[in-house]
Amino acid sequence: MNLQYLGYLNTPNLWLGNLVYNLQQLEVARQPATRFSETLPKNIRLGKRVEQFVFHHLKQLPQTTILCQNLQIQQERHTLGEMDALLLINNKPVHLEIIYKFYVYDAMGTNELDHWIGPNRKDSLVQKLDKLKNKQLPLLYHPETLKYLEKHNLKVDQIKQQVLFMAQLFVPYNQTLPNFKWINPACIRGYYLKKEELSQFKTCKFYLPTKANWLLEPHAQVAWLTHPACKELLTPILDNQTAPLIWIKHPNGEISKSFILWW
To answer: Can you give the pTM of this predicted structure?
Structure first.
């Protein structure tokens, strides 16, 4: 669990400042003194797992107070939405939305933001940005939300909105890409392969981490698989139209992270 927490801490913000959609990134120090020792539900989704890491992290920062987290806004019996967190940072109120994504680079699209899509082609960066801008952040201004703000003596016009949008990005294997103007290049963590390209790595060893361990920095202390054994494990996953993340240990000892795409 602590290695997953360290993986979260080592993931940079996807952009700096408010370069993208005028959404202001929360910028916090990533070297807290404490370990993550809390217990999480066994089957908690990766996004929710990261939220708990963020909350633990923020609690260690002397300038930050969490007023509420995962605040569900309801109207009668209908849930309108959820606000990830209301904070005080240096005694100033902030509404924070937390996002952690894995994206691969697709050549399609007209601008730099269009290129980043989910490894299974089910989502994209632009879709998420639009949802943030048009649905999640406006929830702060819904009349039902005002009732919750009053409990904390908060005035909506004094609350700043920020995001903590982190990502691991994966680019095509052995291809040169243009320089990015908006996207933080430090988020590039590996490459992706089409399934037929895996044959170029027959002398390598492989490891398939669980989804929760996608957060981790690759390391050598795992049960490595041979190329045939890895291929046997990957075949039903890819046939199910799911793109797995794998670690590849090269003969020189270098370890890289890669998605294997089914499409």
So the answer is: 0.96
